[in-house]
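Translate sequence into structure tokens.
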Amino acid sequence: MLSGLSRFSRGKEHAIHGGLLLCALVSVATTAGIIWVLTVESLRFFAEISPVDFLFGGRWAPLLEPKSFGVLPLVCGTFLVAGGALLVAVPIGLGSGIFLSEYAPTRVRSIVKPILEVLAGIPTVVYGYFAIVFVTPKIIQPLAPNTDIFNAASAAIVVGIMIIPTIASLSDDAFRAVPRSLREGAYALSATRLEVSTRVVFPAAMSGVVAAVILAFARAIGETMAVTLAAGAMARLTINPLESVQTMTSYIVQVSLGDTPHGTIEYQTIFAVGMLLFLITLTFNIIAQRVLTRYREVYE
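Result follows.
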């Protein structure tokens, strides 16, 4: 009987192992398929358009005459919105992380953290409409009356609100990973709680904080619907956040609506832009993972 139970147990373990391996292979195959499609279609695009003109051109108008395929306006709009989002999210997110790890009692923490993370579950299209009906007319336009209804500033604000949970949660984990002995040593030297938080815990958790900010920045770069609704569809090379801009993701949405014929150079632009966006996001994720790896090595 023991032998039969042992064989059954081993068979069950093998089945679980096989199921988990299948899930991992599906993820890998899906990623490989996406990369394959992006690569093939991008190569067809670059067979007709010079990569130099694409990467360094200052005018993006693939759907209008005369056609131009310089992606810099889209890149500029993307980083303008993502950079503005960081200006909103980093102070609030880090402040929330410090409060949760250093100040909040256990009961308060158990209530506040789930509520904070609810922000990540709100549909992004809701944030987009929130920017149009409230952020721009009620906050930005009273301060700057000439602001466009669609503008980079409102998109940056709502995207910043969206990535607050990412920064707050990851920085909270980084702060809590700092050894208790460092805090106790600082308290033994008569440091206040604020001094311990800002001069001991924060510097010790800097690698984790940097990784949290980088991951949030990558999340902001890839945001689609909120930016499409709030920032507009005017691809222009500008650093003025009060003007309408177009990001790489919002352009992909615009062309993917079905009005562009399949197989044309205009259709293939979405894959070229998608490949560039993929490479940018991949770069930031690799940087974040390396920072996190270094951070874990310090305290493990």
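Note: The first strand starts at residue 60 and ends at 61.
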